Amino acid sequence: MARGSETRVRILDIAQDAVLAKGFDATSIDEIVAAAEITKSGFFYHFPDKNALALALIERHIEVEDAIFDDLFARARELSDDPLHAFLIGLRLLAEMLADMPNGHPGCIVATAAYQDRQFDRAVRDANRRAVLGWRARFRAMFDEIAARYPPREPVDLDALADMVNTVVEGGIVMSKALGEPGATVDQVLLLRTFVKQLFSPDRPV
Amino acid sequence: MARGSETRVRILDIAQDAVLAKGFDATSIDEIVAAAEITKSGFFYHFPDKNALALALIERHIEVEDAIFDDLFARARELSDDPLHAFLIGLRLLAEMLADMPNGHPGCIVATAAYQDRQFDRAVRDANRRAVLGWRARFRAMFDEIAARYPPREPVDLDALADMVNTVVEGGIVMSKALGEPGATVDQVLLLRTFVKQLFSPDRPV
DNA sequence: GGCGCAACCGTACTGCCGGTACAGGAAACG
DNA sequence: CGTTTCCTGTACCGGCAGTACGGTTGCGCC
């Protein structure tokens, strides 16, 4: 058990690095096998096929991301009791975290999967979908609390607003990759922060 | 000349459909060759390798996107002389265009390339980068004009704001693919519209 | 009218990659 | 001691990108 799961984890670690660096297709099983110092048979003992590897990768990635969001917004909540302020602090912490990645965010596995849709089976697509819906629910709850205290200046769909957090991060990663500017994602998150701040700020007298 | 470029265009058409539907890797040359009713030799006469196909696909795609943006915002400009209103109308037209695609936006080839970075050569990455910078310049010019008339409520980097148009579209596409909800992209564009509207609206008295 | 070149065709081949098949072995566990 | 877990080793298949290279067809040009 101990030895088995250890090898499995090692395969996942190696595969994750390669996939984030080169994409899923460009990562060969032979290459993973060589790096993990096992044989091809060993790989196929742990994963029936490459699809299963993708699934395991995505599920693990979702757990990690969830844990990061939990930590980030829990810390933000400790710094302010106000739901709006706490959220704004959370976004700033997120931006700082993204900025601390010298080579930019390695890239979301969810997006990688989304762009290779057809070649993955239902299990992978479902896992992907559940992850996004989970993030929507997370941020929706925060916006519900915020909107209860600060009525939005303009009518907005809070589900869509919740999705916007993810949209901006995913889109930001695409942009930073395309531009070769790691900082692009951070800028986008901070713009979203400005949006949320304005949306829920009470009208100021001129 | 006429016959030659005709075949080349046919290859690109077929390849584009397949790539948007299945992804670049999942699209085989054999398959393109069969659909175009040519031989493999014919394909490699037009493109030295698959990378060159990707490059041609991206360059063509950028031209089309540019033309679409030209048309969209030119029509918007005809509807209003005010730069802010024209931009807001342009975003709405963009949203309508995205909504009219029944199966959602087929997916931006630029993003597909961004997520398979390493397997493409410099030429592809450079083309991608130029496209994004072009879009930045386009929207930056609009925001310059807007900001000159309506000072923004909050200090924002206009380049980052210009990038946000693309960010939201690209991120929206990722989200709609992951969720299986084609409408997600439209919602995100309309949220961006709300943001821009608020950012440049003069303070209203309460 | 022949010459040349662009635009292919046909065939045969290489090497990588995902995946299969199957036999066997070491070590931990009960 | 036997079973199960966790692999190794070897051999193989079909699909795919790409190479090599000789042959062919049609159109423009002198």
The main β sheet of chain A shows up as: none
Please give the most extensive interface between any two protein chains, plus how many residues each contributes.
A-B, 57 and 57 residues
Q: Overall mean pLDDT score of chain A? A: 91
| Class inferred from helices and paired strands of chain A | mainly alpha
CATH architecture of the largest domain in chain A: Orthogonal Bundle
Shape of chain A: elongated
Helix-residue proportion of chain A: over 70%
CATH superfamily (homologous) name of the largest domain in chain A: Tetracycline Repressor, domain 2
CATH uppermost class of the largest domain in chain A: Mainly Alpha
Q: Extract low-pLDDT stretches of chain A.
A: none
N-to-C terminal Cα separation of chain A, in Å?
A: 68 Å
CATH T-level topology of the largest domain in chain A: Tetracycline Repressor, domain 2
The percentage of residues in β strands of chain A lies in under 5%
Number of helices of chain A: 9
